[in-house]
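Bit of a strange request maybe. I'm writing a small parser for structure token strings and I need a real example to test against, not something I typed by hand. Could someone generate the tokens for this chain?
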Amino acid sequence: MILIKFFDDQSNFGFAILPDGSNIFAHFDDLSKGGISKEILNHAKYNYTITLSFIVMNYLGKNNKPSKKAVEIQLVNIEGPRPNET
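Reply from user aminoacidic:
Good idea to test on real output. This should exercise your parser:
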């Protein structure tokens, strides 16, 4: 499962947390090509589970640090929040 760390609507980018705990950068241009709208991204803030497939592109990011970017992103599934167990 991929967890969305944050998404900035104004800057059109965000980061997700990969299963190994590392961060991956995603730009809205790449997300929208895969059918992912800002509405879907906002659902992730409310305990929705969004499943994506993508290719990891390695590049040199800010301050020439090795970074990862999600490209060729596709929406696989979206599940609504589960009711709280009592």
